[in-house]
Write a structure and sequence with these properties.
The chain is an alpha/beta fold. Helices cover 42% and strands 9% of the residues. The chain has 13 helices and 7 strands. The protein has a 5-stranded parallel beta sheet with strand order 2-3-1-4-5. The protein has a two-stranded antiparallel sheet with strand order 6-7. It starts with 5 loop residues before the first strand and ends in a 34-residue tail after the last helix.
Length: 317
């Protein structure tokens, strides 16, 4: 039986794809070839329906135990990265039951910036029908009631205080490493050494975090609106076979993600203020900068590298 010794569990749109690639370069570690297997998100087959694009994502789940174990190699410290595990309380319990001594890695990002990047990801793919992130966040309760998958939960995914509080009910603080998204951007070598120290493997061997899964922001043109409608119809009819080529067209000339205005940011901060305070209580760290204006916003890692597309996290690299 070969199971992971560590998991990157959150948060979505907080550089987990890039972190997965960086850790895969360490000679003592083996990262699952499927970056986001989502094994602990269900006790059996995942749902078959949801919001736009959800059915295709559910088909990517590695939910059978034998298939999951086949992702890992004996003789290595194995890991995988499914950023929805932090958000899913049932996943917490499944992880505890199967691998109780596991090490967990949590990357937290300014929740407003994370929500904006999440919305832009789906907008650029032609799946998000609402062209304004503030309005899209306001629609979250009705989308949850309609059974849309967690990647549409722009607000809920960013409430790390609640998520970590519940996680610590099952796992010790020694098992969980929490750090900021911007640590990976600003201090990659130091941050990777922190992670390696947490995992008990050699430090100083990896120092770079590649630019992976960079979000682009296509303009809201008539062509974008038409192609997006076709993508959503194609998703219902035939999944990626029909929609993937159109998504590439939509993103072809996409620019780096545009910054939010202060007015937009203020509206979104209101969703997270209480949770930021809870996060400070849970971690003992200061996150007050998340409830003010940002001096850095938008596409912080620049334009998407040439030839790179939107990541399909449930498939082999």
């Amino acid at each position: 039986m070969t199971l992971p010794g560590f998991l990157v569990i959150g948060a979505p749109k907080a550089a987990t794809t890039a972190l997965h690639a960086a850790l895969n370069a360490h000679p003592d570690l083996h990262m699952s070839p499927v970056k986001e297997p989502k094994f602990f998100l269900s006790d059996g087959p995942p749902p078959e329906r949801g919001g736009p694009g959800d059915a295709e994502t559910y088909r990517e789940h590695v939910w059978r135990r034998d298939d999951y174990e086949a992702l890992f190699r004996p003789g290595y410290l194995n890991g995988e990265s499914t950023p929805f595990y932090l958000y899913d309380r049932d996943a917490h319990r499944r992880i505890k039951a199967l691998i109780p001594e596991v090490r967990l890695i949590v990357v937290v990002r300014d929740p407003v910036e994370r929500a904006h990047s999440n919305w832009t990801h789906l907008w650029s793919a032609g799946l998000e029908p609402v062209g304004d992130v503030v309005e899209a966040c306001a629609r979250e309760p009705e989308r949850i009631r309609a059974g849309w998958a967690p990647f549409w939960h722009y607000v809920g995914l960013g409430k790390y205080g609640e998520q970590l509080r519940d996680l610590y009910d099952l796992f010790t603080e020694e098992q969980v490493l929490v750090f900021r998204y911007r640590d990976l951007l600003d201090r990659p070598g130091e941050t990777l050494d922190r992670i390696c120290g947490h995992l008990g493997v050699r430090t100083g061997l990896i120092s770079e975090v590649p630019r992976e899964n960079v979000t682009v922001h296509p303009q809201e043109t008539v062509l974008h609106q038409v192609l997006s409608q076709v993508v959503r119809v194609g998703d219902r009819l035939g999944g990626q076979v029909l929609t993937a080529p159109l998504a590439r067209v939509l993103q072809r000339d996409g620019k780096a993600r545009r910054p939010l205005t202060w007015e937009q940011r203020q509206e979104l901060i209101a969703y997270f203020t209480d949770d930021v305070k809870l996060l400070e209580e849970v971690t003992g760290e200061d996150f007050s900068d998340w409830i003010g204006p940002r001096d850095r916003s938008g596409g912080q890692v620049g334009h998407r590298p040439e030839g790179q597309g939107q990541a399909r996290n449930g498939r082999p690299r």
